[in-house]
Amino acid sequence: INPMSVIGERVVIAMVGLPARGKSYTSRAIVHFFTFLGCPVRLFNAGNKRRTKGLAGAAASFFEASNKDAQQQREQMAMETLDDLLAWLESAPHGCACGIFDATNTTVARRRAVIERCARAEKQSATPLRLVFVESVCNDAAILKHSYRLKLSNGDYEGQDAEKALADFVSRVRAYEQVYETITDEEASGFEAEFDTNGGRLRYVQTVDAGRKLVASGCNSYLMSHLVALLHTIHLYPRKILILLAGESANDRDGIRGGDTELSEAGRAYSAALCDVVRARGERAAACRMLRRRRCLA
Predict the structure, then answer these.
(1) Angle between helices 68-91 and 108-123 (to 10 degrees)
(2) Which pairs from 148-155 meet CB under 8 Å and 24+ separation?
(3) What is the model's pLDDT at position 8?
(4) Helix or strand or coil: residue 162?
(5) Element at 44 (helix H, strand E)
(6) Phi and psi, residue 96, nearest 5°
């Protein structure tokens, strides 16, 4: 029996953060991990909703707070995306299920709207609904430069001149920065009792600079504990995993199969040589990363 089928936990994960801060990357990682655990999970992306409505490649002015008509459209599309998520969550099989709301959600007002929408959905459902915000904060110049370049491959900038597209995307980020409000514990203080489902606290996780720091609040359920564990391991740097053969054991030397004996003399020599090789590779890799970082900052 899949243990996730008997855990009656419905979770909405609402992403928070400026563009190119790793929200979609993190969302996909959560999808893969929860699928591995056996929990039904689906990703709902507000940007995809905008693009399907014919607004792919919208100029940076579309995202400016002063553009009230565009702001209204963005809010409507975001809530439509959330409604799609909640409808899927209600129709999911009995047991555990998780929907990921991948949008910027960068203001207190937007997050309050998300809380209220989820609270109404919970009242209409027989299963408790838990909402947790996952905020990705990044101020590392090297990471941001790399992330900005990656954004040029999405549907908004397909086929466009790279430098012009990058300039437009940076302008879009600046527009979001003008109204960005990071999550704080005090944000929950103004919520009415009818929307308070966690003792007056927001459930949230903040990741800083792609895993350098992690803050979690109110994530005390079974599924959320797995979420926090996953987010603690996510980072954006490339890495290699080495799978190494153990050195010869005393049983290996004597032709005995199985057992858990100490390493033989040859096994100890092999292990020492292997450690030297891995250590040297690590030092070279660290030197290369430092060189690339200096070039990015130059």
Answers:
(1) 30
(2) 148/20, 148/173, 150/20, 151/19, 151/20, 154/47, 155/48, 155/51, 155/56, 155/57
(3) 75
(4) helix
(5) strand 41-45
(6) -80, 145
Rounded Cα distance between 29 and 10, Å, is: 19
CA distances from residue 262 to 142, 247, 275, 298 in whole angstroms, order as listed: 46, 10, 17, 51
Distance (Å, rounded) from C-alpha 16 to C-alpha 138? 12
| The pLDDT of residue 26 | 92
CA distance 45 to 35: 18
β pairing state of 204-208 and 97-102 = unpaired
For residue 179, report the phi and psi dihedrals to the nearest 5 degrees: -120, 5
Q: Which amino acid is at 175?
A: A
Which of 69, 176, 213, 33 shows the shortest CA–CA distance to 13? 33
Model pTM score: 0.75
* Distance, CA of 249 to CA of 45 (rounded, Å): 53
Q: What is the pLDDT of residues 149-208, one digit of tens each?
A: 878 777 777 778 888 888 888 888 998 999 999 998 778 665 544 454 455 568 899 999
Q: Is 99:86 a contact under the CB 8 Å cutoff?
A: yes
- Asked if residue 142 lies in contact with residue 296, where contact means CB atoms within 8 angstroms, the answer is yes
> Which of 153, 175, 180, 177 lies closest to 166 in space, CA to CA?
153
Q: How far apart are CA 167 and CA 178, in angstroms?
A: 17
- CA distances to 89, 96, 108, 131, 132 from 219, rounded to whole Å, are 20, 16, 20, 10, 8
